[in-house]
Amino acid sequence: MQDWTATVHGEHSEQEVLRVERLLELNHVEYTHIEEKNPDTVRVELTPSGGGQTVIVNGFDLGELTAHLKLNTYTKKDSYDLVVVGSGPAGMSAALNAKTLFGWTTLIVEDNAPGGAAGTALNPINNYLGIPAGTKALDLAHTWMGQINAAGVEWLPGCRATAITQIEDPRKTGTEDSSLYPTYKLAIQRTDGKGPVDLYAGMVLIAAGLKPNRLGCTGEEQYLGRGVYYGTLPTDIARARKERVIGIVGAGDTASVAAILLAEEKAKDPAQRLQVAMFVRGKFGKDTIPGNVDRVREYVDRQFITVHEGTEVFSCLGKDRKLTGVEFGKTGHPESVEPLDLTALYVLTGGVADTQWLQGIGLRIVSDEDVKQRRYRKAGAVITGGIDSKLGSLTTTGVDAIFAAGDVREGAVRRIAAAVGEGGAASLDMNAYLVTDGTWQTAIKEGTALYKYYEATAPRNLGSVAVLGGDALAP
Ligand SMILES: Cc1cc2nc3c(=O)[nH]c(=O)nc-3n(C[C@H](O)[C@H](O)[C@H](O)COP(=O)(O)OP(=O)(O)OC[C@H]3O[C@@H](n4cnc5c(N)ncnc54)[C@H](O)[C@@H]3O)c2cc1C
Questions:
Q1: 111 Cβ closer than 6 Å to some ligand 1 atom
Q2: How many Å lie between the centroid of ligand 1 and the Cα of residue 388?
Q3: Pocket lining: 286 vs ligand 1, CB cutoff 6 Å
């Protein structure tokens, strides 16, 4: 991806400015803001970092902006040895290992921004061994991005995998660009609605993490990105200074940290208008670590935060395409609501694995009934390992050539370090899959030279691995 710097011209509080700046921030494009009162449009000046002509883009059209930034172009290849769905730590680590250890042509498809959930953490990352405490999550994600680019992993941002089908006769697809015969076809949709296009993959890694939970209330969709958000970014905190009331739904660590940072911002200058309203379905305090509870309570005492316990938001209200407030009331009682004026509402209530699009290819996915019967913990999660999969390894599923790693997996521990480790493990599981039971004989295209990487991680009793029709035999 080419590096750019951007200048955003528009009124600071304008929702369109906010949308543009969030997009730039999430995609690691440095930007400055130039305040312009009541402009007709939001103007974005994009300058290539390596020199070149500045282009001016209308910020109302995010599609045009992402196209200029080359954030959502289609890949040139028609097939890859490995397609990774999701560019969080699990997907990035798997792609890096796959490419550098085994030389597979590897593509990452990402529907949001590099770094996944880890890239949107407001809190500094203090628990990742070897990374200095205080490291910003976005900086960490940027480093990963640099590593996968340097390794030659291909990267398809702004695109979502929406369907997957098994190829009946891989040898007849006529695909050219991969060493493995394609086993799956993926439908890829651009997040601006364009597409879908088909891509072929010899192996697929599902590293799709968790999709943020939604409120499911009226007005939520309408004001999505225009006041309603499912994650907070560092600039949201700085920007919030000028706001009057900001709402946060949730009472877990993510919600509490966001409330604390906003309150801290307010405390720097008590003349600021900002107030933080937290909407908590039950009692506050049981879903977050004690340190966070204490700090939220401190700011409640100083009247910077109000915790509305036992409440939920029933509707989002707005005007001129902007969120202007919410109606909230006692949990489960939509008949008794009260309005509250707000300029932003952050819904930070955790997430669920979004695996609907994987139905139909035989993957074991945790159902609501599984959870009810306490067989598994998280509905929607992909079941890996154990007797369901041939190899029984951590990231293998019951379906050939499909693997899952990170938060999308049932039993995932939901830590960055764990996701990075699982990504690495996935690449070794894939290699083991290729060399087990002679899979390589049907998986590798004739004349390709993938043999040399296999032996190191092959199960011991396999003997030597040869390249079909290639010019070399492994020892
Ligand atoms: C606010 C916050 C703070 C956190 N702080 C910490 C911390 O301090 N320390 C720590 O260890 N952990 C922390 N975590 C947890 C950690 O971020 C996650 O456990 C980790 O990111 C999981 O990695 P992953 O790769 O499995 O998934 P994710 O990071 O969730 O990445 C998955 C990616 O896949 C994309 N995707 C999903 N579906 C599709 C599709 N169909 N097509 C294309 N792309 C798709 C998503 O948009 C996302 O970008 C935090 C999490 C959050 C939300």
A1: yes
A2: 25
A3: no
Closest-CA residue to 182 (of 110, 72, 107): 107
pLDDT reading at 431 higher than 80? yes
Atom nearest to 117 CA in ligand 1: 29
Number of domains in the chain: 3
Last-in-domain residue among 309, 326, 349:
349
Nearest Cα neighbor of 417 from 402, 427, 431, 407 is 407
pLDDT of 92-126, one tens digit each?
999 999 999 888 999 999 988 888 988 878 888 88
Give yes or no for residue 12 having a pLDDT over 70: no
Q: What residue numbers bound the domain in which 24 lies?
A: 4-68
Report how far residue 433's alpha carbon sits from residue 164's, in angstroms, rounded to the nearest whole number: 20
Determine how β-strand 30-35 pairs with β-strand 245-249. unpaired
Residue with CA at minimum distance from ligand 1 atom 39: 208
327 and 359 inside one domain? no
Report the separation in Å between the CA atom of 443 and the middle of ligand 1, taken as the mean of its atom positions. 31
Is residue 235 located within the same domain as residue 340? yes
- What is residue 79's predicted lDDT score, i.e. its pLDDT? 92
Listed residues 68, 97, 112: the one ending a domain = 68
**pLDDT digit string, tens, across residues 372-427:** 999 999 999 999 997 666 777 899 998 999 999 999 999 999 999 999 999 999 99
Separation of CA 456 from chain center: 32
Residue 87 Cβ contacting ligand 1 at under 6 Å? yes
Tell me which residue has its CA closest to atom 15 in ligand 1: 415
CATH number of the domain residue 288 falls in: 3.50.50.60
Q: Does residue 112 have its Cβ closer than 6 Å to ligand 1?
A: yes
Question: Same domain, yes or no, for 333 and 375?
Answer: no
Strand 43-48 with 55-58, pairing:
antiparallel
